[in-house]
Amino acid sequence: MSASFNAKEQQTSVPDTGDAPASGINANTVVLGLLVLAVIYFLMPGGKKNKVPSGLNAGQGQRGAAPKAAAEDDDEDSWTAKLKSQDKKAAVFFGSQTGTAQEYALKWAKEARSKFGVSSLVLDPEQVEFNNLDRVPNSKAVVFVMASYGEGEPTDNAEAMMEFLLDEDVQFSHGGSRLDNLNYVIFGLGNTTYAKYNEVARKLDARLEELGANRIGGRGEGDEIAGSEKGYMEWKERMWSEFADRLELEAGAGADIADFSVTEIGRETDNNTYLGELSEHALKVSTGRAPARGIFDAKNPYPSPVIARELFALDGERNCVHLEFDISGTNISYSAGDHIAIWPSNPDMAVERFLSVLGLADKRDVIVDVKALDPTLAAVPFPNPSTYEAIFRNYLELSALASRQTLATLAQFAPTPQARAILERWGSDPEVYDREVDKARLRPAEALQLATGNDPSNPKDAAVWPIPLDRIISLLPRQKPRYYSISSSSKMYPTTVHVTAVVLKYQTPESKMHGDQPRWVYGMGSNFLQSVQENLRYGDLAGANTTIRLEGMPTQTPTYRLKGPRDAHVQGNVLRVPIHIRRSTFRLPANTKVPVIMIGPGTGVAPFRGFVQERVAMARSAKQRKGDAALADWGDMFLFYGCRREDEDFLYRDEWPQYAAELDGKLKIHTAFSRGPERKPDGSKIYVQDLIWNARDALVPAILHHGAFIYICGDAKSMAKEVERCLAQMLADYRGGTLEAEGYEELKNLKDKKRFQTDVWS
Ligand SMILES: Cc1cc2nc3c(=O)[nH]c(=O)nc-3n(C[C@H](O)[C@H](O)[C@H](O)COP(=O)(O)OP(=O)(O)OC[C@H]3O[C@@H](n4cnc5c(N)ncnc54)[C@H](O)[C@@H]3O)c2cc1C
Ligand SMILES: NC(=O)c1ccc[n+]([C@@H]2O[C@H](COP(=O)([O-])OP(=O)(O)OC[C@H]3O[C@@H](n4cnc5c(N)ncnc54)[C@H](OP(=O)(O)O)[C@@H]3O)[C@@H](O)[C@H]2O)c1
Ligand SMILES: Cc1cc2nc3c(=O)[nH]c(=O)nc-3n(C[C@H](O)[C@H](O)[C@H](O)COP(=O)(O)O)c2cc1C
């Protein structure tokens, strides 16, 4: 949890009467006490939710959760005062963990500017006071762009704001509990595969209504599965119309204003030029100005030595890799159940395509200095000065689907009227966009190439689009790390972090844009890991960007420049990849007597390899201390694992028997081979939930009478839901009740007690 505490704010909340309180404790003592509490709060272990740590503007300020004493005037540094003094029309708050909600907050603010010429403050709720929502004049609005996590919980940076607003005794700066004067706009970001879809935006909306605030437009909701942009586009028309009416704004009063200035400053790199380094420390290390040692975290990822091997490779279409990151000699630690964030670079093909489409191929090594023109709206999202090539290789996300709005914006730069018409159609007609862009999974530069009739299989075959770099920076998200469930235990492997990654490759449906043919799409991060594995295995690391073509592989397999900025990621035979660890709450019970039920088909088995290793390491030391019978009273570890075929994709098949032996039979593995010879009586596939159902006579008593912990990991779209239903059904049957009351309700109770935990993705 990235919580901070505003000691200064607490000081100002002490009434300055000049009298000592009746208790005899004077104001200074109170302040000191609060400071001590603040320090304790700061030092408390964080991370109560299963989500990625927020990397948003950390350390730029502090939040103030406590209501201030009533005062007539705004503190001139407060956001409400700035709204007034800087003549801003809106304050845009974002609750964001991995940046999407922040991107949408910026998108909203930029649209407000270009439509109506109004300026906004984009704010991280963690950095400001929000008890003064009652001070926002009726001529302005507050916008909330909120992502949901876990069981519909807020992101770290919105936690305090949500807690404050949902408090039934909420009190605002003037002492009241109403927000009758407040105009608000609300857009939620979520994913329909999670049970509590967009819960945060829904809860906040209901609460603001209850407090008397006045919503502008409807509540918007973006679903990652359907495409968050779709929800935004469908929502925004009515919202903008009501926004203009409520704030008495005139459409067309705005202009298309740049967010950044970009200055080319030559080709001579020096120690201040970022060539893909992710932090100032990384730049200092790669230019020999700092030792490799440092404090490594999300802001300064560690370029970790890595080794890798193939777990399976089937028909050149399905691959799974095992990687081990060496964290010895660093401040990095981890626990079984945590996640690792891996920072890949973009594939050569995507980098080349972008440089060609923008006409920058010959200027790839030109250094540019990028500055934010309105820092209250948009900060430069990457370190610079940097070269064109490094910006496209390391700092911008090139593999996300081309959004409708991006295409609509880029139409004005089309090199031909025909290309312009194509982009305008994609931008304005959702059905055409769905059919021609979404279904074909076109990335932005591919879309531009296709619109000018070029051949997307050749990244250099491109008509030049004269799009200024500042527009590209405004339109494309910052390159994000990819998260993986750690598949080792630090008790067994204290100096290495293991990852089990399936390589994402899929075929799109046939599309008009590709001559009515399907095409292969490659996941950016997982193919980077595959490339790491291949280079370590077959490659010449000295030239770690060489193209490797394996027998049977589709011809467009992406290649990557693995050598990193200034070749800092290759030294001799050692290859390095930037990583950081994110804490999670996905944890084994500390008490080894407690049984655990682990359900993880496919790569969902990753954290359970860590859990099993954890108990094996504990078993070894227990046996040393207590002798051979040390595990007699240990609880069972049930592992439900599924894959397609026993002899094809059974992950860590050779390791499990050894672990089971060391656990004296406490590890009970149930395997479902969905495409093996065995079938259910009706001929359908056997999945993990079928095995769970068959084992219910052992599992239900373990859950209800022996305090068993249940874990699900892997696919959120269908597996996790079906397994949950199966668990609910067997609990309901055992209790002789209904699926809802004795089934799902019981699971909810278990979740509340942290005895039912999920680590799922889609
Ligand atoms: C908490 C967490 C833990 C994870 N743990 C693991 C793990 O242990 N092992 C593991 O292998 N992965 C894990 N993942 C997934 C991993 O983070 C990446 O998402 C995955 O490797 C794909 O990344 P990529 O960069 O290769 O794909 P990207 O280039 O980011 O492409 C992914 C995009 O492709 C879309 N997509 C995927 N398949 C299709 C399809 N058939 N048709 C159309 N669109 C499609 C997805 O919806 C997504 O938008 C985890 C994810 C999370 C959030
Ligand atoms: N978003 C992403 O970028 C991304 C990346 C990687 C993985 N994933 C998701 O993560 C999941 C795990 O991937 P993986 O490759 O490791 O696994 P996988 O090999 O695709 O699946 C593992 C096993 O689960 C089975 N299965 C399929 N549907 C199921 C269901 N509804 N209930 C229970 N079991 C089911 C599969 O059977 P059959 O295949 O025979 O039906 C297979 O035997 C996949 O579902 C995938 O969607 C997403
Ligand atoms: C671990 C995890 C848990 C999530 N839980 C939920 C959830 O409970 N409800 C929901 O609607 N979306 C959920 N999501 C989807 C996120 O809200 C969605 O990805 C959103 O776009 C993230 O925004 P951000 O990048 O600003 O953090 C979850 C995503 C992850 C990775």
UniProtKB/TrEMBL annotation:
> Where does this protein hold NADP(+)?
318, 603, 674-675, 685-689, 722
Q: What EC number(s) does its UniProt record assign?
A: 1.6.2.4
InterPro entries documented for this protein: CysJ-like_FAD-binding, FAD-bd_FR_type, Flavdoxin-like, Flavodoxin/NO_synth, Flavoprot_Pyr_Nucl_cyt_Rdtase, Flavoprotein-like_sf, FNR_nucleotide-bd, NADPH_Cyt_P450_Rdtase_alpha
Which SUPFAM superfamilies does this entry report, sorted A to Z?
Ferredoxin reductase-like, C-terminal NADP-linked domain (SSF52343), Flavoproteins (SSF52218), Riboflavin synthase domain-like (SSF63380)
Keyword presence, Iron-sulfur:
no
Show the segment(s) annotated as Disordered.
1-22, 54-75
According to its UniProt entry, the protein's GO biological process terms are:
ergosterol biosynthetic process
Q: Which UniProt keywords apply?
A: Cell membrane, Endoplasmic reticulum, FAD, Flavoprotein, FMN, Lipid biosynthesis, Lipid metabolism, Membrane, Mitochondrion, Mitochondrion outer membrane, NADP, Oxidoreductase, Steroid biosynthesis, Steroid metabolism, Sterol biosynthesis, Sterol metabolism, Transmembrane, Transmembrane helix
- Residues bound to FAD: 482-485, 500-502, 506, 761
The family annotation for this protein states:
In the N-terminal section; belongs to the flavodoxin family.
Protein's UniProt name? NADPH--cytochrome P450 reductase
**The organism's lineage?**
Eukaryota, Fungi, Dikarya, Basidiomycota, Agaricomycotina
